[in-house]
Amino acid sequence: MASFFELTFITVAALLPIVNPFSTAPLFLAITEGQDPETRNEQGRKGVIYMIAILGTFLLAGTLIMTIFGISLPGVRIAGGILVGRVAFRMLYPPDEGELTPDERRETRRKRDISFFPLAMPSLSGPGSIAVTISLATLVTNWWDYIAIFIGILVVGVIVFVTLRLSGHLTRVLGVNGVHAMTKIMGFLIFCIAIQFIVNGVTDPELVAMFRDAWEAE
Predict the structure, then answer these.
(1) How many CB atoms lie within 10 A of CB 50?
(2) Is the Cβ–Cβ distance between 144 and 4 less than 8 Å?
(3) In a structure prediction context, what are the per-residue pLDDT tens digits for the chain, which is 218 residues long?
(4) Which residues lie closer than 8 Å to 195 by C-beta, 6 or more apart?
(5) Calpha distance 97→15 (Å, rounded)
(6) CA-closest candidate to residue 119, choices 22, 12, 32
(7) Which of 174, 164, 206 is nearest to 29 (CA)?
(8) How far apart are CA 7 and CA 150, in angstroms?
(9) What is the 3-state secondary structure (H, E, C) of 70-85?
(10) How far is CA 191 from CA 9, 36, 88, 104, 198, in A?
(11) How many helices and strands (H and E) does the chain possess?
(12) CA dist., res. 212 & res. 144, Å (int)
């Protein structure tokens, strides 16, 4: 039972810095500009539901995807680590312009429903969080592990929803500099997680045995 809670905690610790609701809060306020609080809260709730559905789908289909395309566990971990590391670098050293182009920002303001795009994808469940979810799926040994990871995803969803509901208060309290500082802290944690994914993949016995066999064959 200890491993059940441990896996849930690992899921929350791995996903939360990547989802990073603190950095999503300003974007959420921007794309829901002009909406009343009730409509804004509904958009946030639907966005979180979409996020949970997307990550849950990749959790269940992760092993199937690996089997179909012949991807090994070390390959998933190394690729996931590289992809998550890229996300971390963008958080530590953000580009001069935002994720969305001016045309995309105007379009999202005109749209009544922004819960799926750009809120759920790519803000909450982008490539980084999907890669982490697939990597977590490689740790599954039974159905209890699936449940433990999914509970972790639900916990992250609750945290995100509460953060989005309080986004107006948070940005006023933290300010622009506070949000940037929080984003960089999250970026550093994500980078550490990415390095650990790569280390786990490189030192995996399956990959070590493959390289040893190739070396001996030469």
Answers:
(1) 19
(2) yes
(3) 448 899 999 999 989 988 888 778 777 876 776 677 888 889 999 999 999 999 999 898 877 777 788 777 777 778 777 876 776 787 677 665 455 556 555 554 555 678 887 788 877 887 778 878 988 887 888 899 999 999 999 999 999 999 999 887 766 676 767 767 766 776 787 688 778 778 877 887 776 677 777 676 66
(4) 81, 85
(5) 25
(6) 32
(7) 164
(8) 10
(9) CCCHHHHHHHHHHHHH
(10) 18, 37, 5, 29, 11
(11) 9, 0
(12) 34
Strand, helix or coil for residue 113 = coil
Question: Distance between CA atoms of 183 and 163, rounded to whole angstroms?
Answer: 14
**Residue with structure tokens 């002009």?**
34
Q: How far apart are CA 147 and CA 119, in angstroms?
A: 25
- From the list 104, 101, 99, 108, the residue with the least C-alpha distance to 35 is 108
Residue 174 CB neighbour total at 10 angstroms = 16
Please give the structure tokens belonging to residue 90.
Answer: 């963008």
CA-to-CA separations, 89 to 69, 94, 174, 191, in angstroms, rounded: 29, 8, 22, 7
Q: Which two tokens stand for residue 84?
A: 């998550």
Domain ranges, ordered by start, for the chain: 2-217
Instruction: Specify the pTM.
Output: 0.67
Amino acid at 151: I
> Hey, how many other C-beta atoms are within 10 angstroms of the C-beta on 103?
8
The CA-based dihedral angle spanning residues 32, 175, 10, 148, taken in that order and rounded to the nearest 10 degrees: -30
Cis peptide before 74 (omega within 30 of 0): no
Tell me the residue type at 1: M
